[in-house]
Design brief:
Layout lengths: L5 H5 L5 E6 L2 E6 L2 E6 L2 E6 L5 E5 L8 E10 L3 E9 L4 E8 L13 E4 L5 E5 L1
Antiparallel strand pairs: 1-4, 2-3, 2-10, 4-5, 5-9, 6-7, 7-8, 8-9
Length: 125
């Protein structure tokens, strides 16, 4: 069972809107396609840039390795991080996701987001 986000108790006017999108996203790193999906979630949080979340089923999870890095958001919960593992290179903390987010962001379960300064994200549609 998911808990309610404490951030919204302290700041009930903070806005997070998660919207399904049928745009197509392709995520790549130096020519390596990591993900392609048209089942996106777009997270629009007050004061921050929009973030594209991609279902894990549309990500080449064999290229990613979960690591021990975590962060905490009082609105979304504890984030886990994944690194990209290529034959000759590892890119740390390339993606993140919320395995057990707070109730208000439960639609993020099973989705990952990628740092736009570490990958190319092409949106079409």
């Amino acid at each position: 069972m998911l808990n309610k986000a404490p951030g919204f108790i302290d700041n009930p006017h903070h806005k997070i809107v998660i919207t399904p999108s049928n745009k197509t996203a392709t995520v790549s790193y130096e020519g390596h396609v990591i993900a392609m999906s048209n089942n996106l979630l777009i997270l629009d949080e007050a004061g921050l840039n929009k973030v594209v979340y991609i279902p894990e089923k549309d990500i080449k999870m064999s290229l990613l390795a979960e690591n021990k890095h975590t962060t905490y958001c009082p609105y979304k919960g504890h984030a886990s991080y994944w690194s990209l593992k290529l034959e000759k290179e590892t890119v740390e903390n390339l993606a993140w996701g919320y395995k057990t987010p707070f109730l208000e962001c439960e639609s993020l379960i099973g989705h990952l987001a990628f740092y736009q300064n570490k990958v190319e994200i092409e949106l079409i549609g």
